[in-house]
Amino acid sequence: MHFEIKQIGTIYSPFKKMEEAPIQPRFSDKPGKIEVFPEYKEGLKDLEGFSHIILLYYFHLAKEEQLIIRPFMEPDKPKGIFATRYNKRPNKIGLSICEIDKIENNIIYVKYIDVLDQTPLIDIKPLVPLFDFRNIEKIKVGWLSNKKERPKQ
Amino acid sequence: MHFEIKQIGTIYSPFKKMEEAPIQPRFSDKPGKIEVFPEYKEGLKDLEGFSHIILLYYFHLAKEEQLIIRPFMEPDKPKGIFATRYNKRPNKIGLSICEIDKIENNIIYVKYIDVLDQTPLIDIKPLVPLFDFRNIEKIKVGWLSNKKERPKQ
């Protein structure tokens, strides 16, 4: 079955090419700007009380789908795509959790961003630990367990 | 701009109707089964070391889009859709963070599930606190701040 999704806004960042972008917002020190198209602005009501949002976006520059990839974090050991956040996924949807700096009109300013400039936005959801986690202290991260920070390039 | 996404599997749960489903996995006490279609099975490699996954799925029974909704948690105070996890979103993509029980072949068994039976799966991503959070202790949840558990029905 196939479904159609639509762009509801645009993410702006200082990163113009994949090689420049940090692999996750956690490793970014650059702020970003999320423009929600004016026709969806009303949906931002009440978001200002939240500190973190989950952004869903479309990996518009991703190449062909691959089920096995070689991650930056461990390039000599190929991994299944669903055990990574890579962009060559069967559905090219990316996810970043970002901290809100401020919201002005239909623009959300976030403290750190990891996505490419001009990335199409497809959804914004509030991060709510009460909804999302039980046993947060027991989270295990498999092959990423001994990775503490972004490898130097 | 529009994009096409495809079903890559199916989520099975005990919930046949919206009225039966818990509003988030955090409030569920029922296990679920995630079938990844055989052609995508290879992508599950290395996922078994992770304890939690982020499921993205298509709200196949969601009705027409609404930018302002009345949430279960506070029905007398309408909220912007992006400040909620409701299904009547501009793009009907749902997100649940689930704890893995076991993975057998192309089936992931999760301890708790909140989605409707037969929901189309569109992506699986590992939950990696190192990637996703900085300042986790500072997360603020706006209008949900004083909500501690699911309201009684």
Automatic annotation (TrEMBL), chains A, B:
Protein origin, superkingdom: Archaea
KW S-adenosyl-L-methionine (keyword) present: yes
Keywords: S-adenosyl-L-methionine
SUPFAM superfamilies: YaeB-like
TsaA-like domain mapped to chain residues: 5-136
PROSITE patterns, per the entry: TSAA_2
InterPro entries the UniProt entry points to: TrmO-like_N, YaeB-like, YaeB-like_sf, YaeB_N_sf
Family: Belongs to the tRNA methyltransferase O family.
Record NCBIfam families: tRNA_TsaA
Protein's name according to its UniProt entry: tRNA (N6-threonylcarbamoyladenosine(37)-N6)-methyltransferase TrmO
